[in-house]
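REVIEWER CHECKLIST
Item 1: Sequence provided? yes
Item 2: Single chain? yes
Item 3: Sequence as submitted:
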Amino acid sequence: MLDQIHWLAAVTVLGVLEQAYFFLQVIYSRRLFGISPPKISGPPEFERIFRAQVNSSEYFPIFLALLWQAGLFFHQGLAAAVGLLYLCARYCYFMGYKTSSSERLAPMYFSAGVLWILIAMSALGILHFFLSHYVGLNILQLLTA
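Item 4: Structure as written out by the authors:
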């Protein structure tokens, strides 16, 4: 069983480490600008870092659910590769937003597109599972015949 999920687990750990890095950036930014919790407003530099971290955290559960569904029902290796692409896009998003609010847009749209790919992989994998297990229709066999 573990050989069927090890890539998904590795990407999950990398994602958690990325989230921790984003959290640390907010902590460092708070110290740099003298902004104590629970305050969330301050200089634009702080607010951009804070928003980038919050936005990334909001999408993380969606990413994890789609990563694991795509990996379990579609293909583990492909899902893990797409997951790495998503994490890279979110890193670029964070660094772009840290620099300027307009620098976040291209990585944001790209990461949203990657999530749509994971949605498609998940939906196709789950559809194939239901059709083959409950209807007896194996689409893959029909396509290769």
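Item 5: Key structural point noted by reviewer: The mean pLDDT is 95.
Item 6: Recommendation: ____
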